Amino acid sequence: MENTTSLQGKTILLVNTGPIKKKFILQRLKKLGVYIVVLHKEKNWADPYVDKWIIADTFSHHESISAVNAFIKGHQKIKIDGVLTFWEDDVLLTSKIVDRFNLIGIPYAIAKQARNKFLFREFCEKNGLPFPQHRLVREHRDIHKVAKELKFPVVIKPAYGADSAYVMKAVDKDELLRTYDFIKENISATSEETSSLADGIEIFVEEYIDGDEVDIDILIQNGKIKFYSIADNANKNKGQFFLDSGQSLPSGLPPKDQKALIHMAEGVLEKLGIQNGCIHFEAKSTNNGPVPIEVNLRMGGDYVYSYIKGVWGVDLIENAVKIAVGYYIDYQKPESPQKYIVGWDLYPDSSGILAELDINKDLREKKYLEEINIYKEVGDSILLPPDGYELMGWITVSGDNLLDAKDNLKEALSLISYKAVKFNHESSLGKTARADRFSAAVLNTNLILQNAKFEKVRLISLENQRNLQIGVTGSSHDGEPDNMGSELQHSTESIIKTLRERGYRVRFFDFNNVSKAMSDLRRSDVDLVFNAYEQIDSHTGTKAQITAILEALGIPYTGSRSLDLGLCQDKIRFKKLLSFHNIPTPKWHYAYGLHDKISSDLRYPLIVKPGDVDNSIGITKESVVKNLKELEKQRKLIVNDLHCPALVEEYIPGDEYHVSILGNDKETVRVLPLARSIFKRMPKGYPHIYSYEAKWKQRKNSIYKKITVQCPPKNISPKLEALITEIALDTYNILHCQDYGRVGIRVDAEDNPYVIEVDPNPIFSLHNEMPRVAGLIGLSYGDLLEEIIGLAVRRYKKYENLD
Prior knowledge:
The chain is α+β, with helices and mostly antiparallel strands.
């Protein structure tokens, strides 16, 4: 398009980055010299291209507009020259921003009329434009009415849908009823593929229009169409479902039909009042003339940008920006295209896990190859209707004419082979018989997604593990700078920062909001979760629950299973297990209530601990008791105030050793250097223990700085070191710890070791013990994190049963 006006220095507010497959848009904007401000719920893959972020949930229009307003007030030197979105989800939000900040674009009242397909049909009817007969349906009795008033076949679809999701054909009333039930049961705005439904999930039915389906891509400025391109769609009809299959450009329709289509589109845009924008218009060319189907108020997706630039030399991204900032554009469309292009969407035969993908190297050398984009990797899930609406990728090829381009496409597709398997032979995936094609779609979808995550981790090579997308679980804290919460937050932040520096894509899941975290996890593309949690929203006793959630969602993770985490936290069952296996531990007893008797065989002093929480919660310097009166006082505090059973054990006054262990089996298990805590310098009245205050309040009470921590221990006999190591390893294995963990051991004056705890998920802040002792053998903090991820990958590789 002939326009040499530079966009250098212009500021565009981009609403939503879209998924990573939209990276080409950000790259192009950057090359144009545009200053990019992005409104999005979080920083993501687009960060290298973004100059400023405005963080807000774009599903909440009020929150987003308030955030934009605050940004403008707080950055008065940055003038936003225009606003754009390339993502269907945010067309309405973008129009509200146009209205609120007086920018060039499509006003909200117009956008809502076009965005809602049912309202668009009503608009066409009111304004004398062609339209299919249609009815809104809200319940079963509406279906019965539709069956009497409309001619079959009919199409049932969401009013706010996109990409043919939940667009289905029905040939009679019974099929329409079943289809309606399926859509109502499964339609959701929470998945990435159908997030456009966040604007509403109204459903309507319309008569099926027979004809040639086309896309008309339009640049309109000041009410005048500056450019248009008509592309022919391949048959979308896949039985009862509709899927994008492919397109060819320029259109092969007769010139009179093309002229009628653009005349119809121009009339629709004029009557809607659309003055400025990049429009993706969908229509049908029928024997009775053109019929509008949809007016999408943003650039078309996938290969639309690529082939329009290839055929007509028009850059839709550049010109969309110029329209948004008010730069005049002019273009004289040539009589003949630069080339003929056919695009094709790549789908396997059925939903499943991508088990095979091979692109012949000769394809890359073919002159006709314009572009090929593959979104999936071997091991990824692919969900086709009725399980989901996903695309494996797409390809565009060119030719000297349309027939030549189609022949080239046929050859190109022969050079690409791929296959999705329905289920693993050890899995239940795909084995559930369906009463009809919809009845188990949700079950099938969940199984595919769960197994795909396991399969991806299983298939990845260790040298490529940085290609994994890592989730980090934890909980944010706004408490004092010297407490457990701030330490946990520091740990989480250190993990995220370090992994990102090493090239991992990392996403944080904040379990202070459990329902949101679960929803985000379910929708996310994370391959493996690094568990950095300790407690949910400061609630004790929740350590195993997040892992149980990961297990239920079928997401691979680092560290031990929820069952074993819960066992380690339940100190009474933990002690019973140690006793059963003859692991030395201080003599002990327990009480679930105030009337339970404590064994008189125990010798004072004793230590009284909460029976089912960790991190020294509930342990104070008064926890070590010297007589029955003090014992009963501590028991009462634990049972009544903490609502926990009380564990009572003989107090071992010696040094405390922490034994950090990595690995899962004989091939990978190794014990890191020991760490020893010495309490001899503690003043009188302070028992030699890690109370909660000693562990988390050291900066506020200098007394606890008198605890000497040696990494590694000094002057320890080889015999004692070997004995501690052997007992720790036995304990680690008995508790079925996975990937990493830490065993706590007390040693009395006669060098007798006693196991007092196992922490399968120790805190991972930079200065915590495990990173410190790992550093003694040359493992940096980042190396340690990567080794744990690698151990988890090896562990999943050994899984034969994916259930």
